[in-house]
Specification:
Oligomer: single chain
Number of strands: 20
Radius of gyration: 18 Å
Number of helices: 3
Structural class: mainly beta
Helix content: under 10%
Shape: globular
Length: about 280
């Protein structure tokens, strides 16, 4: 792989993330750029790539299971009244160029293509910032512009008839350990209590690490959290939960998620304090 195919994120001179722009993946995995490995400042990996339980989970990135019927998530497609179904409908996110590239971040242009047609054009802005000597923040913004001549919409298995499966959008596949991670918000605890709800932030705590996901804009905070802990550890922000997300021709949908990556098991009060420090107004 050439240097042009990867970008290394650094915080205070330390590498904390590797961004792969042109992965060599089969179409069924919905090829797309991703961050992996992502590590704490002490070097603990907090992402997984193509784990056995879901080989289409690719570290940290943007994945959407239904863009006008095209699958940009990977794997099977949920079909109403039929269930998960193997379809030849996978799209790909294609890296076009870096508009900006620094040791602590980048601005990237991407094309979302399916069946030979470009559906969306994305601008992705990623920045890594030191918060403390044991925590840093990954600031991730994506803007999806409809470049077709007509309206399109983004859906999820939930909007296609599968309750509780509103995944699609920013998604972080976390490190799987022998025991499931703890999940909490400021006032709730546990996967069942938090999954599908709205909260300013949600934390996932493993054996020696903590991830705290925060919606960094008013629009992003309206999206429910998709949370998995028992089956596998992962957190996403749902673009399409109660209904499909329409994007008219020429219009743009923007979301911003800031993730605190910390060493150790962080308490509620510590998490709230780190989020305030990480999310600028």
């Amino acid at each position: 792989m050439t240097p042009h195919d990867t970008a290394v994120l650094r915080v205070a001179g330390r590498p904390v993330g590797r961004y792969v722009t042109r992965p060599e993946l089969p179409p069924r995995l919905a090829p797309r750029p991703y961050l992996h490995p992502v590590t704490t400042l002490a070097g603990t990996a907090v992402t997984e790539l193509s784990p056995a339980d879901h080989i289409h989970h690719l570290g940290v990135g943007v994945a959407v299971p239904d863009v006008e019927g095209s699958n940009f998530w990977g794997g099977r497609t949920y079909v109403r009244d039929q269930g998960p179904t193997e379809l030849d409908n996978h799209g790909a996110q294609r890296h076009t160029a870096f508009q900006l590239r620094d040791p602590d971040g980048f601005v990237e242009e991407l094309r979302w293509v399916a069946a030979g047609a470009e559906l969306l054009r994305e601008r992705r802005t990623v920045a890594a910032t030191e918060l403390t000597d044991s925590a840093w923040a990954l600031d991730f913004t994506f803007s999806l512009t409809n470049v077709t001549s007509g309206p399109l919409s983004i859906g999820s298995p939930a909007t296609n008839g599968r309750p509780g499966a509103a995944y699609g959008g920013f998604f972080w596949r976390a490190r799987k350990e022998d025991s499931a991670p703890d999940v909490f918000t400021l006032d709730r605890e546990g996967e069942r209590e938090i999954h599908g709800t709205r909260a300013p932030w949600v934390a996932l705590t493993g054996s020696t690490w903590t991830l705290i996901f925060a919606g960094a804009t008013e629009q992003t905070r309206r999206d429910p959290w998709f949370v998995r802990a028992e089956e596998y550890p992962g957190v996403g922000s749902s673009l399409a939960s109660e209904g499909r997300l329409p994007i008219p021709a020429g219009e743009t949908a923007v979301r911003r998620i800031v993730t605190v990556v910390a060493d150790g098991r962080i308490s509620r009060l510590e998490a709230a304090s780190l989020v305030r420090k990480a999310v600028s107004p």
